[in-house]
Specification:
By secondary structure, the chain is of the alpha/beta class. The protein contains eight helices and ten strands.
Length: about 240
């Protein structure tokens, strides 16, 4: 899915969250949105997800304006920082839930869930409840739940920020591998430069709601268009 973000603006009372933001994300591309806390990264992601409605501007999915299309009909997978798993459901039931909403039979749901669980190496955890899983295991279940419905767009909001360094490295490599295998257009929000450099095809640098530069990491380092870009990359190194 190709994503066109056309002059999007979103304000919260006196604070501008996203400020006249325009960008095109190519089909099958993994784009990381990088910037300091409060720069508008998550606001942009929630607009793409249909959770937040912009004040102005449009978002096009493969040329179709999705402004009035609800989140559940946008063919997206959304992964949060806090996993957002249903505590009363097993890992298997959590992964199956989007397929239940789509109307698949129990047999179909469980077959799809088992296949994606094997990809993420969590098939042995499927009968456990979230409270019985480690943070990394919970995040793998969250990723499996997002991927099982075969979305055309995958959105990740700081998905690894609560994990320790070794697990972050392992899971971001897993995310990159799965994204390349599936070819799903992916937008990954983070404030961590290491995450961005490790997995991104291209990186969006944001500050104060604005798109400052959208390039490969090498281009950002060699030819920063504004002082903020080089200062931020140096600061977060």
């Amino acid at each position: 899915m190709e994503i066109k973000i056309c002059d999007i603006t979103k304000s919260y009372r006196t604070v501008v969250g996203v400020d006249h933001f325009t960008a095109t994300i190519h089909d099958g591309e993994l784009v990381v949105v990088l910037g300091p806390s409060g720069c508008g990264k998550s606001s942009l992601l929630y607009i793409l997800a249909g959770i937040t409605k912009p004040d102005s501007g449009t978002v096009l999915f493969d040329g179709v304006d999705v402004s009035d299309i609800p989140s559940e009909e946008r063919e997206i997978g959304l992964i949060f920082q806090n996993y957002a798993l249903f505590p009363h459901m097993s890992a298997l039931e959590n992964i199956c839930f989007p397929l239940y909403i789509k109307g698949l039979t129990k047999t179909e749901r469980e077959a799809e869930a088992l296949a994606i669980a094997k990809t993420l190496r969590i098939e042995q955890l499927l009968l456990r409840k979230p409270e019985e899983l480690s943070g990394g295991e919970q995040q793998r279940v969250s990723i499996a739940r997002a991927l099982v419905k075969k979305p055309k767009l995958l959105l990740l909001d700081e998905p690894l920020s609560s994990l320790d360094a070794n697990l972050r490295i392992e899971l971001r490599e897993e995310i990159k591998k799965i994204q390349k295998e599936t070819g799903i257009t992916t937008i990954y929000v983070t404030h961590d430069q290491d995450d961005a450099v490790s997995i991104a095809d291209r990186i969006i640098i944001m500050n104060e709601g604005k798109l400052i530069q959208f390039d490969t990491f090498n281009e950002l380092k060699k030819n920063p268009k504004e002082p903020f870009v080089s200062e931020f990359l140096q600061y977060t190194k």
